[in-house]
Amino acid sequence: MDKVFIYGAGGHARVVADAIGKMGHEIYGFVTDKDYSKDVTPALGVVAIGSSKAREAITQKLIGDGKTLLKVIHPSAVVSENVEISEGAMLIGNAVVNVGSKIGRSAIINTGATVDHDCTIGDWVHIAPGAHLCGNVSVGEGTWVCVGASVIPGIKIGSWAMIGAGAVVIRDVPNGATVVGCPAKRIK
Fold first, then answer.
1. Residue 117 falls in the annotated catalytic set
2. Among the CATH numbers 3.40.50.20, 3.40.50.1820, 3.90.190.20, 3.20.20.140, which is that of 3-69?
Protein backbone atom coordinates (compact mmCIF):
# COMPACT_ATOMS: atom_id res chain seq x y z
CA MET A 1 0.00 0.00 0.00
CA ASP A 2 0.94 3.67 -0.22
CA LYS A 3 2.95 5.70 2.25
CA VAL A 4 0.80 8.47 3.70
CA PHE A 5 1.88 11.60 5.52
CA ILE A 6 -0.37 13.06 8.21
CA TYR A 7 -0.51 16.84 8.50
CA GLY A 8 -1.05 17.40 12.21
CA ALA A 9 0.41 15.98 15.38
CA GLY A 10 -2.31 16.15 18.03
CA GLY A 11 -4.94 13.77 19.32
CA HIS A 12 -7.04 13.78 16.14
CA ALA A 13 -3.91 13.02 14.09
CA ARG A 14 -3.26 9.94 16.24
CA VAL A 15 -6.86 8.77 15.72
CA VAL A 16 -6.48 9.23 11.96
CA ALA A 17 -3.12 7.42 12.03
CA ASP A 18 -4.81 4.45 13.69
CA ALA A 19 -7.47 4.37 10.95
CA ILE A 20 -4.86 4.67 8.19
CA GLY A 21 -2.87 1.81 9.67
CA LYS A 22 -5.98 -0.35 9.86
CA MET A 23 -6.67 0.47 6.19
CA GLY A 24 -3.32 -1.14 5.40
CA HIS A 25 -1.34 1.98 4.48
CA GLU A 26 2.13 2.73 5.78
CA ILE A 27 2.48 5.97 7.71
CA TYR A 28 5.33 8.15 6.49
CA GLY A 29 5.09 10.41 9.52
CA PHE A 30 3.43 13.42 11.10
CA VAL A 31 4.22 16.87 9.72
CA THR A 32 3.36 20.38 10.88
CA ASP A 33 3.90 23.90 9.50
CA LYS A 34 7.36 23.84 11.06
CA ASP A 35 8.61 20.81 9.13
CA TYR A 36 6.39 20.66 6.02
CA SER A 37 7.78 21.37 2.60
CA LYS A 38 6.17 20.54 -0.71
CA ASP A 39 9.03 18.06 -1.11
CA VAL A 40 7.58 15.71 1.56
CA THR A 41 8.34 12.36 -0.09
CA PRO A 42 4.85 10.87 -0.42
CA ALA A 43 2.34 12.68 -2.60
CA LEU A 44 -0.53 11.16 -0.59
CA GLY A 45 -1.54 12.77 2.69
CA VAL A 46 -4.37 13.76 4.98
CA VAL A 47 -5.02 16.88 7.06
CA ALA A 48 -5.74 15.55 10.55
CA ILE A 49 -6.52 18.74 12.46
CA GLY A 50 -9.81 19.33 14.28
CA SER A 51 -10.08 23.06 13.50
CA SER A 52 -12.16 23.58 10.35
CA LYS A 53 -10.43 26.87 9.44
CA ALA A 54 -6.97 25.32 9.78
CA ARG A 55 -8.07 22.21 7.84
CA GLU A 56 -9.37 24.42 5.03
CA ALA A 57 -6.18 26.47 4.75
CA ILE A 58 -3.84 23.48 4.90
CA THR A 59 -5.96 21.43 2.48
CA GLN A 60 -5.81 24.27 -0.06
CA LYS A 61 -2.04 24.56 0.44
CA LEU A 62 -1.44 20.82 -0.06
CA ILE A 63 -3.60 20.68 -3.19
CA GLY A 64 -1.73 23.72 -4.51
CA ASP A 65 1.52 21.82 -3.91
CA GLY A 66 0.22 18.92 -6.02
CA LYS A 67 -0.52 16.56 -3.13
CA THR A 68 -3.40 14.07 -3.25
CA LEU A 69 -5.59 13.71 -0.18
CA LEU A 70 -6.45 10.23 1.08
CA LYS A 71 -10.06 9.33 1.91
CA VAL A 72 -9.73 7.82 5.39
CA ILE A 73 -12.41 5.22 6.13
CA HIS A 74 -11.85 3.23 9.32
CA PRO A 75 -12.67 -0.48 8.74
CA SER A 76 -15.37 -0.34 11.44
CA ALA A 77 -17.19 2.54 9.73
CA VAL A 78 -20.45 1.52 8.08
CA VAL A 79 -20.76 3.28 4.73
CA SER A 80 -23.41 2.69 2.08
CA GLU A 81 -22.14 1.91 -1.40
CA ASN A 82 -24.17 4.87 -2.65
CA VAL A 83 -22.28 7.64 -0.83
CA GLU A 84 -20.06 10.31 -2.39
CA ILE A 85 -16.92 10.87 -0.33
CA SER A 86 -14.60 13.71 -1.33
CA GLU A 87 -10.83 13.67 -1.07
CA GLY A 88 -9.39 14.05 2.40
CA ALA A 89 -12.63 13.14 4.19
CA MET A 90 -12.20 11.14 7.40
CA LEU A 91 -14.75 8.57 8.57
CA ILE A 92 -13.50 7.43 11.94
CA GLY A 93 -14.28 4.26 13.95
CA ASN A 94 -17.93 3.20 14.12
CA ALA A 95 -19.13 6.16 12.05
CA VAL A 96 -22.23 5.43 9.95
CA VAL A 97 -23.00 7.14 6.64
CA ASN A 98 -26.16 6.03 4.87
CA VAL A 99 -27.37 5.90 1.28
CA GLY A 100 -27.45 9.02 -0.87
CA SER A 101 -25.25 11.14 1.40
CA LYS A 102 -22.39 13.36 0.22
CA ILE A 103 -19.34 14.04 2.37
CA GLY A 104 -17.24 17.12 1.51
CA ARG A 105 -13.51 17.62 1.15
CA SER A 106 -11.55 17.12 4.39
CA ALA A 107 -14.77 16.70 6.38
CA ILE A 108 -14.64 14.64 9.58
CA ILE A 109 -17.33 12.14 10.56
CA ASN A 110 -15.89 11.29 13.95
CA THR A 111 -16.15 8.29 16.28
CA GLY A 112 -19.65 6.85 16.49
CA ALA A 113 -21.29 9.73 14.61
CA THR A 114 -24.21 8.91 12.30
CA VAL A 115 -25.22 10.58 9.05
CA ASP A 116 -28.49 9.17 7.80
CA HIS A 117 -29.80 9.02 4.23
CA ASP A 118 -29.48 11.84 1.71
CA CYS A 119 -27.48 14.22 3.89
CA THR A 120 -25.06 16.75 2.41
CA ILE A 121 -21.98 17.47 4.51
CA GLY A 122 -19.94 20.44 3.24
CA ASP A 123 -16.19 20.81 2.97
CA TRP A 124 -14.25 21.11 6.26
CA VAL A 125 -17.27 20.16 8.41
CA HIS A 126 -16.62 18.33 11.69
CA ILE A 127 -19.36 15.99 12.89
CA ALA A 128 -18.05 15.23 16.39
CA PRO A 129 -18.18 11.90 18.26
CA GLY A 130 -21.67 10.65 18.97
CA ALA A 131 -23.47 13.34 16.96
CA HIS A 132 -26.49 12.17 14.96
CA LEU A 133 -27.97 13.64 11.79
CA CYS A 134 -31.35 12.34 10.59
CA GLY A 135 -32.16 12.11 6.88
CA ASN A 136 -32.00 14.99 4.40
CA VAL A 137 -29.89 17.24 6.64
CA SER A 138 -27.61 19.77 4.96
CA VAL A 139 -24.53 21.08 6.80
CA GLY A 140 -22.66 24.03 5.24
CA GLU A 141 -18.89 24.23 4.92
CA GLY A 142 -16.75 24.64 8.00
CA THR A 143 -19.53 23.94 10.50
CA TRP A 144 -18.83 22.05 13.71
CA VAL A 145 -21.58 19.78 15.06
CA CYS A 146 -20.32 19.11 18.59
CA VAL A 147 -20.35 15.89 20.59
CA GLY A 148 -23.73 14.30 21.17
CA ALA A 149 -25.75 16.83 19.15
CA SER A 150 -28.85 15.59 17.31
CA VAL A 151 -30.44 17.09 14.20
CA ILE A 152 -34.00 16.21 13.08
CA PRO A 153 -34.80 15.38 9.42
CA GLY A 154 -34.69 18.01 6.70
CA ILE A 155 -32.78 20.69 8.64
CA LYS A 156 -30.43 23.10 6.84
CA ILE A 157 -27.40 24.24 8.84
CA GLY A 158 -25.46 27.13 7.35
CA SER A 159 -21.72 27.53 6.81
CA TRP A 160 -19.23 28.15 9.63
CA ALA A 161 -21.88 27.58 12.32
CA MET A 162 -21.46 25.79 15.63
CA ILE A 163 -23.94 23.33 17.09
CA GLY A 164 -23.25 22.99 20.83
CA ALA A 165 -22.60 19.73 22.63
CA GLY A 166 -25.81 17.80 23.24
CA ALA A 167 -27.95 20.33 21.32
CA VAL A 168 -31.16 19.17 19.68
CA VAL A 169 -31.62 21.06 16.41
CA ILE A 170 -35.26 21.33 15.32
CA ARG A 171 -35.02 24.53 13.20
CA ASP A 172 -32.72 25.65 10.39
CA VAL A 173 -29.49 27.33 11.53
CA PRO A 174 -28.14 30.37 9.63
CA ASN A 175 -24.55 30.90 8.50
CA GLY A 176 -22.15 31.71 11.36
CA ALA A 177 -24.67 31.06 14.15
CA THR A 178 -23.95 29.26 17.40
CA VAL A 179 -26.86 27.26 18.81
CA VAL A 180 -27.07 25.35 22.09
CA GLY A 181 -29.61 23.54 24.24
CA CYS A 182 -32.70 21.37 23.88
CA PRO A 183 -34.29 22.58 21.73
CA ALA A 184 -31.32 24.44 20.27
CA LYS A 185 -31.48 28.23 20.52
CA ARG A 186 -29.18 30.79 18.94
CA ILE A 187 -26.77 32.46 21.34
CA LYS A 188 -24.73 34.42 18.75
1. yes
2. 3.40.50.20
